[in-house]
Design brief:
The protein has helices at 2-15, 22-28, 30-46, 50-64, 173-185, 199-227, 243-248, 250-256; strands spanning 67-68, 73-74, 79-81, 87-88, 93-94, 99-101, 105-107, 119-120, 125-126, 131-133, 137-138, 143-144, 149-150, 159-161, 166-167. The chain is α/β, with parallel strands linked by helices. It has two domains: 2-167, 3 Solenoid (UDP N-Acetylglucosamine Acyltransferase, domain 1), CATH 2.160.10.10; 173-256, no CATH class. Residues 187-196 and 249-257 have low confidence and may be disordered.
Length: 257
């Protein structure tokens, strides 16, 4: 147990640039105080001293604002940054090298006995205010964005954001085509550019995909008809000036301000 406490203290220097020395960490970091108290209360709980373990965890909550149930299983090098408002439920399990920020809840969704809280794999980072609810798995290397509400399993090495939490969209060829059409229309699909996903943006993306395909077909038809002797007026198409699209464009909002 003491070797784990030593690791919990040393890992602070790797994840918090503000940490200057061991004395400062031991005396001023509530996250370290909470995890040290939990190591003791967890050991008491395993030996059958359930009431004493709960009392110790309540004392830790009183002084740190961090509530960790004594029965929760926490791995090595666990880091809590700031920590106020963190709640870790009875059947929660946390792997090695995980980090939690203030306001995080690892909560349950049922009153039934048994496993009802989340399991975090190794190297998981949970942003401030995030809620992970139910007996779900957050796999190794996953990242949970601030204020996300996670109710389904998160794959390894994946970042999820939003309410309910969804996987972040990654840039690919399809997204590049969408960006080109959006630029042509004078509209930036801001909700699903490389970083985030959004239900409205998904709908807009489907529209952009449809327009892209129709644009390709029209160009092919014009070229074939021109090859057969047809004459066409290839003047540039007028820009779309939809007021709602303009309001959704972050660049136009910046110009107004």
């Amino acid at each position: 147990m003491f070797s784990r406490i030593k690791e919990d203290i040393s890992c602070v220097f790797d994840r918090d640039p503000a940490a200057r020395n061991t004395f400062e960490v031991l005396t001023t970091y509530p996250g370290v105080h909470a995890i040290i108290m939990h190591r003791f209360s967890h050991a008491l709980s395993k030996k059958g001293f359930k009431w004493l373990a709960r009392v110790l965890s309540n004392v830790a909550r009183l002084f740190t604002g961090i509530e960790i149930h004594p029965s929760a299983v926490i791995g090595r090098r666990f880091f809590i940054d700031h920590g106020m408002g963190i709640v870790i439920g009875e059947t929660a399990e946390i792997g090695d090298d995980c980090s939690l920020y203030h306001g995080v809840t690892l909560g349950g969704t049922s009153w039934s006995p048994g496993k009802r809280h989340p399991t975090l794999g190794n190297n998981v980072v949970v942003g401030a205010g995030a809620k992970i609810l139910g007996p779900i798995m957050i796999n190794d290397g996953a990242r949970v964005g601030s204020n996300a509400v996670v109710v389904k399993e998160v794959p390894a090495d994946t970042t999820v954001v939003g309410v309910p939490a969804r996987e972040v969209i990654k840039s690919d060829i399809t997204q590049e085509n969408r960006d080109k059409i959006a630029e042509k229309m004078g509209f930036d699909a801001y909700g699903a550019t490389q970083d985030m996903t959004d239900p409205v943006a998904k709908t807009v993306n489907r529209m952009l995909d449809h327009i892209h395909k129709m644009d390709e077909r029209m160009n092919k038809m014009c070229k074939q008809m021109q090859h057969l002797g047809g004459e066409f007026d290839f003047e540039p198409l007028p820009e779309l000036k939809n007021a709602e699209l303009s309001e959704c464009n972050p660049e136009s909002q910046k110009e107004k301000t």
